[in-house]
């Protein structure tokens, strides 16, 4: 009882290009038109959310050698949308997923420093790596990076951008019209970086931004990814939104902080989480089932089965039984451009297990994909969902959640209207923004402050 | 072809720091401490929009500004540092309704795939008002910021020699490939590719998404873009050109070329050269604008403009020199000059205000009314898109079946 309540952090993930985004619903709007982003961002800001989150993908997905056409396809450029959203919001953080493989540090540092200036200190970077030659076909540098080098390149990339952000200290611009001194120091922005992946030098041309550096997110889950986050990130975009797995992940990652001389509260754990709300818990359960059926059409069910079978299953009836033939254990040649397929490490066992499940429950292919697919994380009345989220946070399954609605762009509205007020009543979620920058909302110190000192909140 | 009156001039303003004169930041009106805030740029673009201008351009560069072409100058008495131009333009887009937004992009060190979707997205957030100004960088110190190629030192004098032109010709070839990739990616989605067909469960008609399969000397790009075809179909491509090699880039790939004639004869000769290159490129029947670039000091009386120029030159410690002609005078005199040059075939002008805080309001409040009185400039925005303002039709998609 003596332990003070943790304050919950909430963020809004713009619905992405997975089948979890329901485009067939009459309420579903454009995921490209700027008006959708404005609605989504302004809803999040009205609800006093910490930030908006954008994912990224740099090549359209393919399955069976053809562009995958069953899910939402396409998205705008991350940086450009975030800069425009800075004009229609005042406090909301703007988090962009930007790949460190198909970019150069100087350019990415310029873009984040510029976004931070243009938003008055609200930028954040979800640093991801990709190494596939498939995506690399869209870029100068090509794609290939051996897997064992991807974290070393990502680490060096981030370290290099930090050197660029720190190459200006914030006091260089004098702009004294009378004396004619614009810059205090002719060497402002000077940097030299000589490493395994980058050998660059010169002068950075964007002065120190309000937050010093963007807030850094990390999304990887491997041991290396967790170390990377513990050493260098401000927050983790995690996949563990369930109570037990969430607590295990939370404990594991927070325990890694000490060896880097960092405190528990210097790294936030923010899992992605979906939700379905209705007036009562029972109604929400019914609705959640309906949404899952919308998310998995018959055609989608067949395609998901192909991830495991690694074969063309288009001749199968989604309302019929599972295939008798076994998965093809050769190289993946069915699906390209998504991470999901690597999750099935033993396709034969998965196929056997699914056939047994389907037989026992009399499930069709589509039923099976729906039933074995991810259930929404929070299902219930506003009271139930608010209570559950608070319990998860107070018991250290997370520090908050990055909510992923299934409808663009209005899917967040009900959460903002019904759940946020309850969390505010319980005193676990802000009723006013805590300061101008994203670091203020997240309770993170400005990089210029001495370690241990906190931003006043 | 053009929906606008043929006697109408097109006017753009080039935004750079506090203005094009290196001492401009020292003027009372200059706001040098606001340079790195969104509000500064929003105010400038709002002023340009009040003047019904076609568009603004945003200068950019991948290194600190310098008074020398090929190297840093170590000076501390001029504006140094800048924000990314594409992001600045995007930040302003939701705050404006009619004016075009044309950021500079450097083709030499950046990824055409990223840039294509960035400009497509700028077109979405501005609902059809985006363009780009493509630029090369031959500067060795900027290449060092990327560490992927080494460029030998190059001075402005060398740049003007045949050998210097040979060197930049390769960079311009790369820029031409870059624009080709950017344009193909814009077309890589047909306009009606998104079908949302609930019956078949298909979100897109993948037969209307196209690989661009570009292979060139500097890069190959597969496509399609991750961003659907932008509202204008093809946002505007523009380029500044001083010589034959860049004129060729304009003629082959651009919708607008900015050129720097110092008198009517030069204007005539440049326009003729670009038109000939345009014909050679098989684009004779396409509308390619040729805009004259001018640095302007504008005041109600000529002496005031000249005095201001002299005062700023004195503050800078040397006379300001430019690739473009420097004009100092009244709005009526400038209107005379613009009409004289337009008679030689220029279809518009990109004005570079010497001091943005002074000369931009002088353009919108002095030059524009003067041109309107002469029936030479619009009195209201008459189109919803930048292409529309410039009399350019929305182009057919190169990949769509006829």
From TrEMBL, chain A:
User: What InterPro entries does the annotation carry?
Assistant: Diverse_substr_monoxygenases, Luciferase-like_dom, Luciferase-like_sf, NTA_MOA
Citing just one GO molecular function, the answer is: monooxygenase activity
Which CDD domains would you find in this protein's record? Nitrilotriacetate_monoxgenase
Gene3D superfamilies referenced in this protein's UniProt entry, alphabetically: Luciferase-like domain
Q: Which residues form the Luciferase-like domain?
A: 23-395
Keyword terms: Flavoprotein, FMN, Monooxygenase, Oxidoreductase
* Listed Pfam families: Bac_luciferase
Answer whether the UniProt record assigns the keyword DNA repair to this protein. no
Keyword set includes Flavoprotein: yes
PANTHER family per record: ALKANESULFONATE MONOOXYGENASE-RELATED, C2H2 FINGER DOMAIN TRANSCRIPTION FACTOR (EUROFUNG)-RELATED
Tell me which family the UniProt entry assigns to this protein.
Belongs to the NtaA/SnaA/DszA monooxygenase family.
> What's the protein name?
FMN-dependent oxidoreductase (Nitrilotriacetate monooxygenase family)
Automatic annotation (TrEMBL), chain B:
Look up and give the organism this protein is from: Streptomyces pseudovenezuelae
Tell me the protein's name: Alkanesulfonate monooxygenase SsuD/methylene tetrahydromethanopterin reductase-like flavin-dependent oxidoreductase (Luciferase family)
Q: Which UniProt keywords apply?
A: Flavoprotein, FMN, Monooxygenase, Oxidoreductase
Q: Which Pfam families match?
A: Bac_luciferase
**Which Gene3D superfamilies does this one have?**
Luciferase-like domain (3.20.20.30)
InterPro entries in the record: Diverse_substr_monoxygenases, Luciferase-like_dom, Luciferase-like_sf, NTA_MOA
Which family would the database say this protein is a member of?
Belongs to the NtaA/SnaA/DszA monooxygenase family.
- Superkingdom as given in the UniProt entry: Bacteria
Q: TM segments?
A: none
User: Where do the Luciferase-like domain residues begin and end?
Assistant: 36-314
């Amino acid at each position: 009882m003596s332990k003070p309540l943790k304050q919950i952090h909430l963020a809004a993930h713009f619905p992405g290009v997975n089948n979890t985004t329901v485009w067939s619903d009459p309420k579903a709007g454009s995921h490209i038109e700027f008006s959708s982003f404005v609605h989504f961002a302004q809803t999040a800001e009205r609800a006093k959310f910490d930030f908006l989150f954008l994912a990224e993908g740099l090549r359209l997905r393919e399955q069976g050698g053809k562009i995958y056409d069953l899910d939402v396809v396409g998205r705008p450029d991350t940086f450009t949308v975030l800069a425009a959203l800075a004009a229609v919001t005042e406090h909301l953080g703007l988090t962009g997923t930007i790949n460190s493989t198909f970019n150069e540090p100087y350019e990415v540092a310029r873009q984040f420093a510029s976004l931070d200036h243009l938003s008055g200190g609200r930028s954040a970077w979800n640093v991801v790596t990709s190494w596939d030659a498939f995506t690399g076909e869209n870029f100068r540098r090509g794609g290939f990076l051996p897997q064992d080098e991807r974290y070393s390149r990502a680490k060096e990339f981030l370290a290099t951008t930090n050197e660029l952000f720190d190459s200006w200290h914030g006091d260089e611009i004098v702009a004294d019209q009378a004396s004619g001194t614009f810059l205090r120091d002719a060497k402002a922005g000077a940097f030299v970086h000589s490493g395994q992946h980058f050998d660059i030098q010169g002068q950075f041309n964007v002065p120190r931004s309000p937050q010093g550096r963007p807030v850094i997110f990390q999304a990887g889950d491997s041991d290396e990814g967790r170390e990377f986050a513990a050493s260098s990130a401000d927050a983790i975009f995690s996949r563990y939104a369930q109570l037990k797995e969430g607590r295990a992940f939370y404990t594991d990652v927070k325990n890694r902080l000490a060896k880097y001389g960092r405190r528990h509260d210097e790294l936030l754990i923010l899992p992605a989480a979906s939700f379905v709300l209705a007036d009562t818990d029972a109604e929400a359960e019914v609705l959640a089932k309906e949404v899952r059926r919308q998310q998995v059409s018959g055609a989608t069910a067949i395609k998901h089965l192909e991830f495991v079978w690694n074969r063309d299953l288009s001749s199968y009836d989604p309302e019929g039984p599972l295939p008798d033939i076994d998965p093809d254990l050769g190289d993946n040649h069915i699906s390209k451009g998504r991470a999901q397929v690597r999750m099935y490490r033993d396709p034969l066992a998965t196929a056997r297990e699914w056939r047994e499940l389907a037989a026992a429950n009399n499930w069709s292919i589509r039923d099976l994909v729906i039933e074995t697919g991810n259930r929404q994380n929070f299902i219930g009345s506003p009271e139930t969902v608010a209570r559950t989220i608070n319990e998860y946070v107070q018991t250290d399954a997370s520090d908050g959640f990055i909510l992923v609605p299934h409808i663009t762009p209005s899917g967040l509205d009900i959460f903002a209207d019904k759940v946020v007020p309850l969390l505010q009543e319980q005193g676990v979620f802000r009723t006013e923004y805590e300061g101008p920058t994203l670091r203020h909302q997240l309770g993170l110190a400005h990089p210029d402050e001495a370690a241990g000192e906190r931003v006043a909140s | 072809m053009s929906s606008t009156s043929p006697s109408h001039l097109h006017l753009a303003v080039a935004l750079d720091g506090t203005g094009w004169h290196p001492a401009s930041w020292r003027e009372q009106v200059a706001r040098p401490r606001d340079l790195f805030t969104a509000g500064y740029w929003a105010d400038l673009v709002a002023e340009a929009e009040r003047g019904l201008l076609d568009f603004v351009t945003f200068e950019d560069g991948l290194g600190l500004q310098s008074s020398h072409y090929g190297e840093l100058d170590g000076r501390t008495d001029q504006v140094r540092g800048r924000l990314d131009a594409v992001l600045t333009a995007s930040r302003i887009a939701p705050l404006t309704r009619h004016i075009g937004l044309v950021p500079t992009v450097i083709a030499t060190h950046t990824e055409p795939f990223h840039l294509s979707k960035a400009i497509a997205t700028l077109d979405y957030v501005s609902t059809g008002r985006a363009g780009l100004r493509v630029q090369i960088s031959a500067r060795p110190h900027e290449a060092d910021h990327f560490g992927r190629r080494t460029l030998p030192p190059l001075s402005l004098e060398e740049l003007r020699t045949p050998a210097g032109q040979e060197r930049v010709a390769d960079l311009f070839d790369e820029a031409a490939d870059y624009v080709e990739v950017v344009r193909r990616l814009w077309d890589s989605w047909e306009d009606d590719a998104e079908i949302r067909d609930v019956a078949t469960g298909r979100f897109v008609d993948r037969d209307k998404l196209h690989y661009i399969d570009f292979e060139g000397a500097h890069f190959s790009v597969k496509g399609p873009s991750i961003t659907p075809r932008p509202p204008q179909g093809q946002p505007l491509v523009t380029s500044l050109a001083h010589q034959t090699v860049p004129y060729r880039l304009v003629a082959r790939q651009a919708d607008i070329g900015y050129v720097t004639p110092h008198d009517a004869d030069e204007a005539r000769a440049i326009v003729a050269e670009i038109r000939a290159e345009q014909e050679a490129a098989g684009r004779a029947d396409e509308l390619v604008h040729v805009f004259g670039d001018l640095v302007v000091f504008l005041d109600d009386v000529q002496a005031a403009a000249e005095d201001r120029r002299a005062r700023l030159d004195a503050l800078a410690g040397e006379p300001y020199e430019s690739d473009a002609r420097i004009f100092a005078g009244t709005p009526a005199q400038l209107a005379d000059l613009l009409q004289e040059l337009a008679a030689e075939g220029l279809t518009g002008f990109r004005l570079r205000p010497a001091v943005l805080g002074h000369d931009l309001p002088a353009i919108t409040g002095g030059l524009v009314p003067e041109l309107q009185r002469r029936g030479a400039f619009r009195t209201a925005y008459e189109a919803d898109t930048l292409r529309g303002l410039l009399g350019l039709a929305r182009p057919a998609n190169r990949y769509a079946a006829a």
